[in-house]
């Protein structure tokens, strides 16, 4: 069970030296207990106290890495059951299952899902390698899949097949998912030899728990819990029981990331798989394996994931500054909008589509949308003119034409007073109208 603030305080030097960045040792202790600061920030803890506190204050769910290089991904490290309590730590990953017979066809379709949304790359991060009974073919499948650059899941309970695949792809740090009560010895030995994360399976959660205990007893704790495919109900129950048992019950033997194969829960039914992928994105799948991924499936799934894995107490924003669109230089017109990430990427996308060089000025508007920022006083003639002055934009950009959002046309008069050397132009209300507006304006 995690220590409370007073328990941590007892082990601190109580000197109130402030070197940790917090005024007092008591305040530091309370922040450590809340997970807001790391215990290592105190430079005066004894080695024994640091070791004890580091273990006691570590997240009840272990943080693991799978994959290597650019394909490395973090799993686990979660500290809360509900997103409104605190930001979820490691976003869930999507995988597509492939086998020796359908690999070429499946990969050709999977590779197409690769696009950007609000500055984040959306693609299928993992390939789940299904074993169909032929060891040589499985090794060949692993070699082909390795060439995709995606993180791999060696999905088999057959130790011979697992070894054949691992010998081909070990350096890519795949997830080995196949340990159970019958093959514990062999799979722990493989995981240790190839230094990979090990997935644990079982007929029910009790069997999985017993196997985890047995594996921990052998000194291996880089584990992922397979939620099973007996039924949708049991998989969902397992997901909730595992997370609750770790975070509320303090049971570190349940404190591991999870994997759920919705392709097995709803074979052949892509609509149900998509629905289940949405469910386990929210509750609590670290890896979700589907039969395939199409654009129709990806767009809502990745949008949901991006919303779930953001800080609920902090708006998604972009860095304030001047962004040159379409090769804009000091002679290009200027356009301004808020720093809310979704607004920025919608507007910048339309600006790019117009082909007209534009300097996009983004000032700090508190992460709000245009109308909300204006209503809250975060987007005003004063804030825009001050940002232009502070950034020296007057001197950097010769073209003093500023296009403002149509929804805050009311700012035009005041901006003309505060920026007398600038020509203020009101854009359309909707971003989708920017393309025609800019083309017409540039041609005038």
Secondary structure class reads: alpha/beta
Radius of gyration: 27 Å
User: In which order are the strands of the major sheet placed?
Assistant: 3-6-7-8-9-10-11-12
Distance between the termini: 70 Å
Biggest sheet architecture: 8 strands, parallel, barrel
Into how many domains do the coordinates divide? 3
Note the total helix count. 18
Share of helical residues: 40-55%
Provide the CATH topology of the largest domain.
Answer: TIM Barrel
List unreliable stretches of 5+ residues: none
So what's the overall shape? globular
CATH homology superfamily name of the largest domain = Dihydropteroate synthase-like
- In round numbers, the mean pLDDT is 93
Note down, in words, how this protein is organized.
The chain is 41% helix and 17% strand. It has 3 domains: 5-57, Electron transport complex subunit B, putative Fe-S cluster (3-methyladenine DNA Glycosylase II, Chain A, domain 3, Orthogonal Bundle), CATH 1.10.15; 63-308, Dihydropteroate synthase-like (TIM Barrel), CATH 3.20.20; 321-443, 3-Layer(aba) Sandwich (Rossmann fold), CATH 3.40.50. Helix 5 (135-146) runs parallel beside helix 6 and helix 6 packs parallel to helix 7 (184-194). It is globular, with a radius of gyration of 27 Å. The mean pLDDT is 93. Helix 6 (159-169) links the parallel strand 7 and strand 8. It has helices at 5-10, 25-34, 47-57, 103-110, 135-146, 159-169, 184-194, 205-217, 232-247, 262-265, 270-282, 295-308, 341-354, 370-375, 381-390, 393-396, 412-418, 434-443; strands spanning 63-66, 73-76, 93-98, 114-117, 120-123, 126-130, 151-155, 175-179, 197-200, 223-226, 258-261, 287-290, 321-325, 333-337, 358-362, 401-404, 423-426. It has 444 residues and is an alpha/beta fold. The protein has an 8-stranded parallel barrel, surrounded by 6 helices.
């Amino acid at each position: 069970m995690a220590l409370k603030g007073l328990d941590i305080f007892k082990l601190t030097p109580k000197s109130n030296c402030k070197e940790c960045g917090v005024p007092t040792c008591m305040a530091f202790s309370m922040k450590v207990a809340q997970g807001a600061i790391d215990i290592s920030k105190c430079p005066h803890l004894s080695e024994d106290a640091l070791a004890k506190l580091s273990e006691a204050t570590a997240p009840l769910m272990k943080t693991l890495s799978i994959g290597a290089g650019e394909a490395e991904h973090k799993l686990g490290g979660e500290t809360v059951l509900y997103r409104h309590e605190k930001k979820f730590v490691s976003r869930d990953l999507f995988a597509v299952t492939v086998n020796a017979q359908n690999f070429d066809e499946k990969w050709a379709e999977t590779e197409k899902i690769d696009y950007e949304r609000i500055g984040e790359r959306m693609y299928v991060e993992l390939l789940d390698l299904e074993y169909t009974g032929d060891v040589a073919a499985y090794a060949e499948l692993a070699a082909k899949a390795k060439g995709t650059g995606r993180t791999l899941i060696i999905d088999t309970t057959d130790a011979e097949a697992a070894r054949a695949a691992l010998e081909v792809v070990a350096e890519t740090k795949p997830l080995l998912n196949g340990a159970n009560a019958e093959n514990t010895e062999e799979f722990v030995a493989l995981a240790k030899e190839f230094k990979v994360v090990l997935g644990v399976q079982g007929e029910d959660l009790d069997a999985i728990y017993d196997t985890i205990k047995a594996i921990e007893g052998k000194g291996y704790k880089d584990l992922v819990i397979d939620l099973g495919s007996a039924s949708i109900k049991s998989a969902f129950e397992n997901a909730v029981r595992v997370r609750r048992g770790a975070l509320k019950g303090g049971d570190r033997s349940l404190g591991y990331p999870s994997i759920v194969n919705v392709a097995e829960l709803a074979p052949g039914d892509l609509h149900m798989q998509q629905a289940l992928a949405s469910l386990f994105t929210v509750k609590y799948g670290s890896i979700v394996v589907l039969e395939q991924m199409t654009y129709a499936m990806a767009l809502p799934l990745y949008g949901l994931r991006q919303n779930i894995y953001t800080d609920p107490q902090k708006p998604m924003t972009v860095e304030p500054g001047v962004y040159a669109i379409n090769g804009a230089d000091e002679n290009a017109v200027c356009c301004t909008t808020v720093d809310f990430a979704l607004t920025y990427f919608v507007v910048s996308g339309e600006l790019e589509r117009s082909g007209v060089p534009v300097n996009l000025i983004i000032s700090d508007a508190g992460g709000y949308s245009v109308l909300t920022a204006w209503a809250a006083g975060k987007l005003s003639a004063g804030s825009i003119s001050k940002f232009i002055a502070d950034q020296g934009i007057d001197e950097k950009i010769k073209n003093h034409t500023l296009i403002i959002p149509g929804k805050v046309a009311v700012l035009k008069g005041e901006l003309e007073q505060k920026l007398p050397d600038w020509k203020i132009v009101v854009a359309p209300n909707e971003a989708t109208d920017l393309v025609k507006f800019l083309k017409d304006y540039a041609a005038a």
